[in-house]
Structures are given as C-alpha cells and as structure tokens.
Amino acid sequence: MKSFILFTLLAAGVFWNAPVIAQGIKFENLTMSQAMAKASDPGAPRLIFLDCYTSWCMPCLEMAKEVFPQKECGDFFNPRFVSVKFDMEKGEGAALRKKYDVNVYPTFLILDSKGEEINRIVGKSETAEFIEKVKAAMDPNTSMAGMKATYEKKKSMMNGYPYAKALFDNGRDPSSILEELYDSSMDFERFSFTYLDLALRAVKFGSPFFRKMMLEKARIDQAVGAEMVNQIIFDKIRKDMYIVATETGAKYNIHYTPEEVENVAYTMALLKQDSQKPESHMCKIALYVVRKDLDGMIDYYKRYMWNLSPTEAFKVITDGILTSKAAGATDVQKEAIREYFRMASRSFEREAKQYQSKAEIIK
C-alpha cells in the first residue's frame, strides 16, 4: 500500500510539473556555434538568449526554478530566441565568459545570429519585470549598441549619461564615458547629483579620473553631501583592504604594493570617518599587514580598538584578523595579543556589571 501511495505521489509530481516545464523557456542543449547556425535559419530567423550562470549563484538558480518555467516566458521567448545556457566556469562556458566579459551573475545576453552582443540584463527579476527588461534590451533605441551610436554621433550629457548608466547597470565599466562627460560638460551638468552619484560609484579608486574628481571634492561634497561621498569612497576600497589585511590577494587576484596601501590609508584618513566604527580602521590595519609590522599593528589595536563595541559585525572581523596573525608571532607578540583581548574583556565586564546593577534595582 505504501508503495502504491508513493508511486501515486511521484506520478502526480511528474504530471504536475511537466506542463509548467513545457510551457516555459525551451533551453536547447547546443554549442554556441550550433545555436548561431539555428538562429540563422532563413525559415525561422531568431536572436540568441544566453543564460550565463554559475553553480554557486543562488539568484541564477532562483531564475531557473521560478521564472524561466513560467508560461509567459515561454510565450515570449520561444518564438523569438534560440535559448541556451552555460556554466561560466566549465567547458565552453569559460571561453564565453572571457569573450563576452561576464563578471556578474546572473547575466543574460541578447545576441544576434552571428553571436554579436546586442544587449545584456544583469540580476534577478520577477517574471513580468524580466520580460519587460528583455523587450527594452531588444529595442534598437534602448539597446547598448543603439545608445553607443547615439552618443558617438553627439557626445553630450543627454546622450552619454543613459549609455554610461546602462553600462554600469549591466556590469560594464563606464569610466571612460563618464570622464569624457566630466571633461566636456558644463558645471551644472557634471556637478549634478544624478551624474556624480553614478560617477562616484563607477570610478576606480586611485585612477586618474578618481584623482581628477578629488581635486573638486569640495564641490562634489556640496552637490552630493560629504557623508555620502565619503561612504561611497570608503565602500570602494573596503573589500580590497580586507583582502590585503587577511593576505588572501592571490585567491582574488587583488594585489597592492605597500606604497599603494599607504596612499589609500592617507586618503581615507582625510575623510574623517567615525573612529567608533571598526570598519573605519581597515585601511590602517592593511597598512600594518603589508608592511609586515605586527608590533605596530598590535600597538594600534591596543590604542584604538580595545573599547569598540563587540556587537559590531566588523569588530568580529577586525579581531579575527589580529587573531590570525598569532600563528606567526613571537612569544612576546602573542602575549601582547592576549593583553589586547584582556583589555577588551575588562572594558565590557564593566558594562555588564552596570547592566546587572540596573536589573537588580527592579523589584
């Protein structure tokens, strides 16, 4: 009886799911060359929809399970596209990742029958929103190629900003376009909040364009707000400095010389960050690490970090960095690290006692 029930449930599952799968996007098991050949068929010319995913990308999996099987997707995609998907870390997918410069997941490429990119969509969307994004990506006026042609015909903020934003939104670097606009536009355009918000988020820390913008930081602060500008700048470099501090640059292919880290630390010191926030110390910690100055690093922790709140997420991270250095420390240095943690413990023992006293007052 149990076997019969199990069989019935499994069968129901198969028949329940089968129509949904059949109604959704029909992904074909083709090589890229085969997909191009099929899209070139004079009897049924189509574009190519390329799903660029990885095995570890949860939004990729969610799109595959929740969006692609929907009937609306099948109705829209199947008559218009030859649809294929590739894991960007395996087989032909690795070559396609390099060819199309795919660095963000999920990325969805709209290609012509020759494999030339028309446009791309990045990130997860709900079904209706995703279809609208693809429609817009197919429109010659809003396609990447169309916006590029419009900008090259007349290089103005009106034409350049939408193109630069589309590049940025789709995981591309728009810095060269933004710098051209910065150099050629009127002040009311280049110091507008809209332009600066995009330029600050897109520009690479320490690049010539970044330094050019920093020469006008007072005006940028006035337009955007100093606190917001400083946070955007810090967010650009925080991850890199964490990688330097944890000495994991080889894993992520991120490398800084001591001089470069020093320049970063000096720049960040001028931004007047809140020293009570543990993340504000990351650049200086990275500088001690890259200089291989463990004594200086321990002293810095004992001076400035022992009394920072242990409930802050970055306090756990910064303390973890110091702990990780103990393996290569001398006995004297290990004792100094222990003393740092004892100092931190004593600080919060006092707080704990204060809270306990308040609790005991309540009758």
Automatic annotation (TrEMBL):
Pfam families, alphabetized: Thioredoxin
InterPro entries reported in the protein's UniProt record: Thioredoxin-like_sf (IPR036249), Thioredoxin_domain (IPR013766)
Annotated ranges, domain Thioredoxin: 1-139
Record's protein name: Thioredoxin-like protein
Species in which this protein is naturally found: Pseudobacter ginsenosidimutans
